[in-house]
Amino acid sequence: MNGKLKIQEIARQTGLSISTVSRVLAGKANTSAEARHKVLACAQQNGILQGLSNGRLMLNNVMVFAPQRAFDVRTDIFYHKVIQGITAALAEHEVRIRYCGLEEQHSDGALFLEKMSDPQTEAALIIGIDDEHIHQLAADLHKPCVLINCTDRQMRLDSVSPDHQLIGEFSANYLIQQGHSHILNLQCLRRHTMELRLAGIRQAYAQHNIAFDEGRHLVTTSGFGSEEAEQALTTFINQVGQRSQLPTAILAGGDYMAVGAVKALNKLGLNVPTDISVMSTDGFNLAEIHDVPLTSVHVPRDELGHEAIQLLQRRMLRADAPPCNLLLHGKLAVRASVKRISPHKTSPAVSTHDHRLYDV
């Protein structure tokens, strides 16, 4: 059945005009909610929607919820870029985007309900909100909704996130494969996503039979800033005292934390990567820090918005589809801040090797 016949058949079954059906299937804004419901229901019943999944988005208004700092590039570059990705993904559709700030935890449930109950809110994207009550309200309202960089623990909503646990595991594994067995993890654990990354790091240690000692292998901060990271690492190194006990590599939880780590090392007379290697996991993708090209695992950022819109389209076309959690992989950028070292070799206590056994 070609496109023209599809429109004619839907028009015949719904009693709507061909022009109305055409506008609905094209995602045009000048259509009523009742008309859209009739057209989509008919198309789904006749198996026509399968070919429309890459077409126009079947709605006109989307509400974006995020922490207030996400709307200012100076306070949260990562989420600001995620929102830009959403805007870019919706640029080809006639969709109006509205925004609402919510706290990550203990969010304003009344405000959320007010915005979601607005007839203009046909679908929602929720970015970085960990409040399970908000997730529950969103699921109960039965409007298309996709979470970004957060997870619905009740498994009722679609979500897309970086695969934080695998990114942490991969990053630590990379350093271990470069010969580093004493790695200091400089991490901010203020969100569950960062806890997942640390869980992946622990898993990498376990895979290589390295005991994870928080006193030797972990320094935490309350934020991702360079100054706090510099201060935390300086305090740690001064407490260690002997340079022979220092780590051979630092795995930072962000590029700006890596900046702070390099500053601290330089002020203490340590060179990167000659004395200590530095690696980052982040989405900011700083190419260099203090003239040292930074090896890092790039966390998906701009891609989150596009994939969220794809999930939203899937939910619009297949309302009965099981909710899914899409995890995006990171990408390794090998530069010059990590030095490959030879693993320490231990001499056997007793040697039975004697070259004379093989003399002829």
Automatic annotation (TrEMBL):
<dbReference type="Pfam" id="PF00356">
    <property type="entry name" value="LacI"/>
</dbReference>
<dbReference type="GO" id="GO:0003700">
    <property type="term" value="F:DNA-binding transcription factor activity"/>
</dbReference>
<protein>
    <submittedName>
        <fullName>HTH-type transcriptional repressor CytR</fullName>
    </submittedName>
</protein>
<dbReference type="InterPro" id="IPR028082">
    <property type="entry name" value="Peripla_BP_I"/>
</dbReference>
<keyword id="KW-0805">Transcription regulation</keyword>
<feature type="domain" description="HTH lacI-type">
    <location>
        <begin position="5"/>
        <end position="47"/>
    </location>
</feature>
<dbReference type="InterPro" id="IPR010982">
    <property type="entry name" value="Lambda_DNA-bd_dom_sf"/>
</dbReference>
<dbReference type="InterPro" id="IPR046335">
    <property type="entry name" value="LacI/GalR-like_sensor"/>
</dbReference>
<dbReference type="GO" id="GO:0000976">
    <property type="term" value="F:transcription cis-regulatory region binding"/>
</dbReference>
<keyword id="KW-0678">Repressor</keyword>
<dbReference type="InterPro" id="IPR000843">
    <property type="entry name" value="HTH_LacI"/>
</dbReference>
<keyword id="KW-0238">DNA-binding</keyword>
<keyword id="KW-0804">Transcription</keyword>
<dbReference type="Pfam" id="PF13377">
    <property type="entry name" value="Peripla_BP_3"/>
</dbReference>
